[in-house]
Each structure stands twice: as structure tokens, then as C-alpha cells.
Amino acid sequence: MNVLDRKPLSIAEASVYLKAESTSDAVKEYFKKFGKLDSKEAVKLAQEVRDLNSPKIKEEDIKKVVDFLPQDAEDVNKIFSEASLTEEEINKILEIVKKY
């Protein structure tokens, strides 16, 4: 097997890929337990965070926001532990997440 492309996926996006394949019950249970959004909502949320156009926000971090749906500044800071976001950036992310 050759890897053609590598990109981070949220749980919702991964579940779409794996529905095409036969998936074990354990994986299905994991997606059901930890997947908080459907794939369309996950894509929309990721795009809204991406649209903030901050060079500090990496694609991997966007997928974590989609998966964890942070509720406060502390949660956002845990996701962006390698970046130092401003209070304004944190608040913008929280405003976007509240829609979902």
C-alpha cells in the first residue's frame, strides 16, 4: 500500500471515509461516542476557523477544534498549546464553535 496523500481528518470526516469500507464494531462505536458533528457541520466549522486567516492556526489544530468543540479559553489554549493565540483570536474561535 502506498500513501498518496496525508492530511489531518476530523472524526466526522474519517467516519465518511470508513463507511465506504467494512468497519469493525469497535471503530463504529468510537465514532458514535466521540463524533459530535456530522460531516457537513464539521466541514463548515473547519472552514469558518480557517477563514480567520491566522498563520498561527494549523490544519491539525482546526481538526482538533472540530473534534473537541472547546467551550472556553482554557480548552482553546489546550488545543493550541504550540501557538500563542491572542484573546481576540480565542474569542473568535469560541464564537464560531458556539454555532455548532
Distance between the termini: 37 Å
State the secondary-structure class: mainly alpha
Mean pLDDT: 90
The overall strand count is 0
Largest sheet: none
Whole-number radius of gyration? 14 Å
Task: Name the helix and strand elements from N-terminus to C-terminus, one letter apiece.
Answer: HHHHHH
TL;DR?
With 100 residues, this protein is an all-alpha fold. Helices cover 60% and strands 0% of the residues.
Task: Kindly list the characteristics that best describe this protein.
single chain; 100 residues; mainly alpha; 6 helices; 60% helix; globular
Structural features, described:
There is one protein chain. The chain is mostly helical and 100 residues long. The protein has one domain. Helix content is 60%, strand content 0%. It has six helices and no strands. The chain has helices at residues 11-19, 25-34, 39-50, 59-68, 73-79, 87-98. Helix 1 (11-19) packs across helix 3 (39-50). The longest helix has 12 residues, at 39-50. The N and C termini lie far apart (37 Å). The model has no long low-confidence stretch (mean pLDDT 90).
